[in-house]
Amino acid sequence: MARCEVCGNDYDMCFEVHAQGVVHVFDSFECAIQRMAPVCEHCGVKIVGHGVQAGRRWFCCAHCARSEGADAIVDRVGIPMQQGA
After folding, report:
1. What is the pTM of this model?
2. Which residue, of 9, 63, 78, 81, has the fewest CB within 10 Å?
3. Per-position DSSP letters for the chain, written without gaps between them
């Protein structure tokens, strides 16, 4: 059996994630997300989906990116932004 590197569970169905030359072992996607998902540089949530990148910075959404000065990032193209959005 293998041991999850996040929670320490010794579990026969652990899985490996190979990333940037390192092998990680987890017992659940939740543990994998906690260890490997990037963090939004504005609000601090784990970025589980695609997220958005502005230069070398990562954000969970266009709103957070804009809040940090990345004015060119939008959620949708061709739809006027509402006041206060």
Report:
1. 0.75
2. 78
3. -EE-TTT--EETT-EEEEETTEEEEESSHHHHHHHHS-B-TTT--B--S--EEETTEEESSHHHHHHTT-TT--SSSSSPPPTT-
pLDDT digits over 29-84, tens only? 999 999 999 999 999 999 999 999 999 999 999 999 999 999 988 888 776 666 65
Q: How far apart are CA 80 and CA 45, in angstroms?
A: 27
The count of other CB atoms within 10 Å of the CB of residue 66 is: 20
Nearest to 24 by CA among 39, 43, 5: 5
Round to whole Å and give the CA distance between 33 and 20: 16
Query: Hey, where are the domains in the chain?
Result: 1-36, 37-80
- List the beta bridge partners of residue 59: 52
